[in-house]
Specification:
This protein has one domain (6-61, 71-126): 2,3-Dihydroxybiphenyl 1,2-Dioxygenase, domain 1 (Roll), CATH 3.10.180. It has 2 helices and 8 strands; from the N terminus they run βαββββαβββ. The protein has helices at 14-25, 83-92; strands at 6-11, 28-34, 37-43, 54-59, 77-79, 96-104, 108-114, 120-126. It is globular and about 50 Å long.
Length: 131
């Protein structure tokens, strides 16, 4: 109980932002037919994968926040094998660095990017030797 089970990303152009996340993480983006609502499902892992959280992509109902604005929503962090490679790939796909990679001593490397629609997301690489 009380654990996160779903996330949503808001976008001015959902199809375009869905392509960004598909290219970056390999997520499956599936258009759902819902009356009166544009909605895409985001599948982040195979069904039954432990700790996997799937989400949705929705058309933004308000103006896109200014680049660098403080988020007014939860920021999701994605576990990756190589944070340096993923931050570079995200930038190549149009993301902007929000916070450079930093060590969480004895635990991991963490960094934050801003997607092309100005949503902030985190990247996390487990590493017991981080310092």
């Amino acid at each position: 109980m009380n654990s996160v089970v779903h996330f949503e990303i808001h976008a001015a152009e959902p199809e375009k932002l869905g392509a960004f996340y598909k290219a970056l993480f390999g997520w499956e983006i599936v258009k759902y037919e819902m009356p009166g609502m544009d909605y895409w499902g985001i599948v982040t892992a195979e069904k039954g994968a432990p700790n996997a959280i799937n989400g949705g992509l929705v058309k933004r109902g308000v103006p896109t926040p200014a680049l660098g604005a403080t988020p007014s929503a939860f920021v999701c962090t994605v576990l990756v094998d190589d944070i340096d490679a993923m931050m570079k790939k995200a930038a190549e796909l149009g993301a902007v660095e929000a916070m450079a990679k930093f060590a969480i001593p004895g635990m991991a490397w963490q960094g934050y990017m801003i997607d092309p629609d100005h949503n902030i997301f985190g990247l996390h690489q487990a590493d017991a030797n981080a310092k």
